[in-house]
């Protein structure tokens, strides 16, 4: 059941200046039924309000028409006020409670809507009562009542549409699609069914199919907000936010009632997404309990802005239902877990990722495989991480985040060549210390210690540069790249006369001397090492230097 308008923000809209054209040349006053037939609800509301104000019309027909027009225009409060006025009049009918309940449902006031339904009782429009209670039971989480009302539904078109809508709301998109397709075969002129089918295919990630089916509906209703918005969402998934926003221009160009974007919760929400989070804090919070995706997109906004605590508040009590909700909740827990070194949060994240990646419906999808990779990443099982990342690598050739994760996983699994290639493709993290340290390690492990040293040289002196120096000193030592190990330990020792740095420097110097003796390093580097040894005041220094000099003299090499 899709709300036809906005319940959060309504602007005073101007009436259309032109009335429906009469069939004959005779000029006559427009009637409300003409506007309603053309679905010009603003025109109908304007005319009916004028009749009430100037002609003192407060009869049953006028008020019912006004409430109907307000409901379909998304002005639920005014519709409710009108039904309240009807219930105070002498034309009281219990069905008014039912109609008011529909408005309350649209405002997401489900408990109040149920109370109004109960006031209506059984002696009302039975079909509408059952359909509304069916959906209210779903919104209120009353599973037993859902089954009870489901059994009372018939095979009528309205009841079938009601069942399909509930399937959609419960994320059973295949079941909803089957009903819509069946109804479409039997009712070719029910063009809106094409939009519903397209919406289901969008939810199933078949964006091209969704666009193809949606084109049928937009060919007839080219200015439909639901239709144009869905087309824009498909373009967002297939291309980018700019392409999506361009599709929405047709709505503004065709609007005669002000800013169509400000008058629609759905459009305002999606514009935030298309523009990469612009105005998120102004638009999304009021929509969190109205548009399901609003909560998730607000969480994403907070994560991108490193506002982890704000993101956690939004997911803490959220019971995930669809894969995207599981994934976003897992990401929040993993960020907190890694930042605070919390085993509890990391454990929750790992289980949530595994639930998605291991499910029958998601295991062979790209998000599903990303989830399994994330699960094994948190478990530090990097060989398994690579199994999943390699299976989807072709879809993320120029994606910085994918290459970043692939690079770290490859390095952690000892595949340094692949790690170096992946990290060099990353652009947006090049100033990040973690990136620089992993790339330096890859350089060293791939026999390119000079590149790691260049990274250090280009850094400003800081705690991070000292950490990188420590990494270079120790990793080069392990890999037998003693020249750069001596250089790194020499700088560290001069900054901090820690005996461990002297031990490392001494060992690396002896290692380099052995390589020179074996003819695997140049004698010029040995001269540099002797110079660096002299920077240390340890009494062992002269002994080492004398040994090196004697070898040089014996081999015709003068220092």
From TrEMBL:
Organism annotation: Euplotes crassus
Stored Gene3D superfamilies: Tetratricopeptide repeat domain
Q: Name one GO biological process term.
A: intraciliary anterograde transport
Query: InterPro entries in the record, alphabetically?
Result: TPR-like_helical_dom_sf, TPR_rpt, TTC26
Query: What molecular function does GO assign, one term?
Result: intraciliary transport particle B binding
Keywords noted in UniProt: Cell projection, Repeat, TPR repeat
Q: Where in the cell is it found?
A: Cell projection, Cilium
- Domain of life of the organism in this record? Eukaryota
Similarity section: Belongs to the IFT56 family.
Q: Which GO terms describe its cellular component?
A: ciliary basal body; ciliary base; intraciliary transport particle B
| Chief site of localization | other
> Which Pfam families did the record assign?
TPR_16
Region (Disordered), start-end ranges: 1-28
| Name listed for the protein in its UniProt record | Intraflagellar transport protein 56
